[in-house]
Write a structure and sequence with these properties.
alpha+beta, Flavocytochrome B2, Chain A, domain 1, 2 domains, five-stranded mixed beta sheet, elongated, disordered N terminus, binds protoporphyrin IX containing FE
C-alpha cells in the first residue's frame, strides 16, 4: 500500500512549482513562490518570462552651496536690521531714481564699499555681504558689476527688490546703441 504520504514528502513535489499555478500569478508572487533551498537548481524554464520595466534614474541631488553665517546674520536678523531705520546704503543715500552708470558701479568693488547692479537697480550691498547665505566670496566676484545673470542662475526666486529695498541707491543707466 502506498503510504499516502509520498506526494507530501517527496522532495521533488515540494521543490518544483506547478507551472499552471504560476501562469496565473503576478510577478511578485512568482518571485516569492519558490521553496527551493539554497544550492538546489530551480527549473527556470517553467517560470513565466516577464520583462520588468527599467527603474527610473534617481533625480540628481542638489548640493547646497550655502555657507555658515556668522552668529546674528540670519535672514531674520537682516530683515530686522534693514527695517530698523539705520542707513543701509552706507551713507550713499536711498534713491529709486538716481541714474548710475556701470562705470560708476565698477569703482565700488571692495568689501568696505560694494555696489552691484541687478535687474536694472543699483544696490550698495556693503552691509548685506555678511548676511548672504551663499557667502561673501561669491558676491565679491561680482562686486562693482551687473550681476543679473548670475543672480538668476543661482536663485531667481529670491525677492531681491524686497530684500535689498533699503540698499537701493539708484537705477542703472541703460546703454543706447549709436546706429
Ligand atoms: C546681492 C544680491 C543677492 C542677494 C540678495 C542674494 C540672496 C540670496 C539668498 C536669500 C540666498 C538663499 C536662497 C535660498 O535659501 O534658497 C542665496 C543663496 C545663494 N546665493 Fe545669493 N544673493 C545675491 C547675489 C548672488 C550672486 C551675484 C551670486 C552668484 C554670483 C549668488 C550666489 C548664491 C549661492 C551660490 C547661494 C547658495 C545657493 C544654494 O546652494 O542653496 N548670490 N542668495
Amino acid at each position: 500500500m502506498n503510504s499516502g504520504g509520498d506526494s507530501l514528502l517527496d522532495p521533488a513535489d515540494s521543490l518544483v512549482p506547478v507551472s499552471s499555478d504560476l501562469a496565473t500569478m503576478s510577478i511578485s508572487e512568482t518571485l516569492n513562490a519558490s521553496n527551493t533551498p539554497a544550492g538546489v537548481e530551480e527549473n527556470k524554464s517553467e517560470l513565466p518570462q516577464t520583462v520588468m520595466p527599467a527603474p527610473k534614474p534617481a533625480p540628481p541631488k542638489k548640493v547646497s552651496r550655502k555657507v555658515e553665517l556668522k552668529p546674528g546674520h540670519s535672514l531674520t536678523h537682516w530683515v530686522n536690521r534693514s527695517k530698523s531705520g539705520e542707513d543701509m546704503t552706507n551713507k550713499v543715500g536711498l534713491s529709486e531714481t538716481r541714474v548710475i552708470t556701470l562705470q560708476e558701479v565698477a569703482k565700488h568693488n571692495q568689501e568696505s564699499d560694494c555696489w552691484m547692479a541687478i535687474r536694472g537697480k543699483v544696490y550698495n550691498i556693503t552691509k548685506y555681504l555678511d548676511y548672504h547665505p551663499g557667502g561673501v566670496d561669491i558676491l565679491m566676484k561680482e562686486a562693482g558689476k551687473e550681476a543679473t545673470a548670475l543672480f538668476d542662475k543661482n536663485h531667481r526666486w529670491v525677492n531681491i527688490e524686497r530684500l535689498l529695498a533699503s540698499c537701493q541707491i539708484g537705477v542703472l543707466k541703460t546703454m543706447t546703441l549709436a546706429i
